[in-house]
Write a structure and sequence with these properties.
alpha/beta; two-stranded antiparallel ribbon; 31% helix; globular
Length: 173
């Protein structure tokens, strides 16, 4: 239970990538953390790209980001929606400023781009947004997982077995 006593936000919106939300959430919970699903509205069912549901525990407005130790941003098409919320960008900027773990996979890099935190940061993502990442100042690598301090990034679902342990490890630093 290496994450016992830790609290983590997992952002959700319609069309999240099903595995990129649920695999990390379940593994981080198994490691002992309390993970809250946070979306635009509380107690709302959101659906992944393949139809898997996820019910939000809280809305963006309901939480105090200072009460959390890390954040997970899943991919899919939801990052394009999530980055339109000032609160979401504020969350990401807070975790960046405090050097607390930020996990992002696939298209989730869009949220970090919109938060303006990728200048000079080593990352990966789905190759489809490589240009977006590099244009935001990131140093992009085609690897299963890239850890640069507190920012842990991954490309896509087949990389989840490498991504989640790296995210968990970031809490030890």
């Amino acid at each position: 239970m290496v994450l016992k006593g830790k609290k983590v936000i997992a952002l959700i919106s319609e069309d999240f990538e099903d595995l990129e939300l649920w695999y990390p959430v379940l593994r981080v919970r198994e490691a002992g953390a309390e993970v809250h699903l946070v979306g635009e509205k509380a107690d709302t069912v959101y659906h992944g790209k393949y139809g898997v549901p996820a019910t939000s525990d809280f809305s963006f407005e309901d939480i105090k980001v200072e009460d959390y130790d890390g954040i997970l941003v899943p991919g899919g098409w939801s990052p394009d929606k999530l980055r339109r919320f000032d609160k979401v960008l504020d969350f990401v900027r807070y975790f960046d400023k405090e050097k607390k773990p930020i996990g992002q996979i696939c298209h989730a890099g869009w949220v970090l781009i919109s938060a303006g935190i990728l200048g000079g940061v080593n990352v990966t993502s789905t190759p489809g947004i490589k240009d977006d990442m590099t244009n935001a100042g990131a140093i992009w690598h085609d690897e299963a997982v890239v850890t640069d301090g507190h920012i842990i990034s991954s490309r896509r679902p087949p990389d989840l077995p490498e991504y989640v342990p790296a995210f968990i490890e970031a809490f030890k630093k």
